[in-house]
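Possible regression after last week's pipeline update?

I re-ran a chain I had predicted before the update to compare outputs. Posting the input and the new output here so someone can diff against the archived version. Not blocking, just want to make sure nothing changed silently.
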Amino acid sequence: MTERSRIIECLNHLGILCDAESNFLLSDIIEDSLLFVSMIVEIEQEFGIEIPDEYFQPDRLISFSDLVEMVNTLSSTK
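New output (post-update):
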């Protein structure tokens, strides 16, 4: 299973249905800060990573592709 697919599974677990093949804006699917934090926790648990605070800057996680890139980067350094 690819990182993209695993992230989509995390989102689906939170009730967010989206297509792994498209690149969408996270702001289009994340309705509030609680859902954002839930998504981060879900991804950290799924991949066994800890997402540093630097990724929570407004220009770091804009799209689904940004999220996949972040997971790839953090997974490769653990």
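Follow-up from reviewer: compared with the archived run. Residues 36 and 48 are 18 Å apart (CA to CA). Marking as no regression found.
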